[in-house]
Design goal:
The model has no long low-confidence stretch (mean pLDDT 91). By secondary structure, the chain is mostly helical. It is globular. 57% of the residues lie in helices and 5% in strands. It is built from eleven helices and three strands. A hairpin with a 2-residue loop joins β2 and β3. The protein folds into two domains: 42 residues, no CATH class; 153 residues, no CATH class.
């Protein structure tokens, strides 16, 4: 575990706004802006990006092994701009809205209760997030370096993409475990202070995978929840 530094404090406060609805909108907005700031600041960019990417890695790794998010592939491993696919019940399909949202949410639902389940995610551009999400599942370092090279600041647009990807990963996990999820908090607390220096990142990644196993949603829940083949 790393030390409490400025980035740790900023992420801690931001993470709480993602799980606690009682924060006033202005507080949530300010904490979000502070999180973008540490990603676009050259002195804190690498640390914050690795911690955020590591949290996404753990959240995705905590999903059912059959979940498509655990089975992302790329047509050309040497070209991260090539088509991304997912394996669903043995079949390879494009990484797109229908596969990544429509598998567990009825995109054509008219019932308010059903629509509420996916309303927050229905307008997210899954393809825009796809490469970054793939890299998070491979390594938080690769994900960080794709957003911004070591010691370089992220752009505001890229920082916003990272936070959107985190919210997406949180939503996916909540689909199976609900909003009252202590496992997510544990993962947040682990990554907000993780030692993500070159000397500590391997241990942080190993701890992240071990934690994913401990807080995993369990095998079989995806097969039960899915509504499309």
């Amino acid at each position: 575990m790393g030390s409490i530094d400025h980035t740790s404090v900023v992420l801690h406060e931001y993470f709480h706004t993602l799980v606690e609805p009682l924060f006033p909108p202005e507080v949530s907005l300010k904490r979000y802006e502070n999180t973008v700031d540490v990603m676009v600041d050259r002195t804190t960019s690498t640390t914050s990006l690795r911690r955020l990417s590591g949290l996404i890695m753990t959240l995705i790794a905590s999903l059912d092994p059959e979940d498509p998010h655990r089975n992302i592939d790329i047509a050309n491993p040497t070209d991260f701009t090539s088509q991304l696919t997912v394996t669903v019940h043995g079949d390879s399909r494009p990484f797109d809205q229908a596969t990544m949202v429509g598998d567990v949410h009825n995109l054509d639902a008219t019932d308010p209760a059903e629509r509420l389940e996916f309303e927050a995610i229905s307008d997210i551009d899954i393809e825009a997030l796809s490469t970054y999400l793939l890299l998070c599942t491979i390594s938080p370092v690769q994900a960080q370096q794709w957003i911004a090279d070591d010691g370089r600041p992220a752009t505001t647009d890229d920082a916003e993409l990272v936070t959107q990807a985190l919210r997406y990963a949180l939503h996916r996990r909540r689909t199976f475990v609900g909003t009252d999820d202590p496992g997510t908090l544990i993962a947040m607390y682990e990554w907000e202070v993780a030692d993500v220096t070159d000397a500590g990142i391997d241990e942080a990644i190993a701890n992240g995978y071990e934690l994913a196993h401990e807080i995993g949603v369990g095998a079989g829940v995806y097969r039960t929840r899915r509504i499309s083949d």
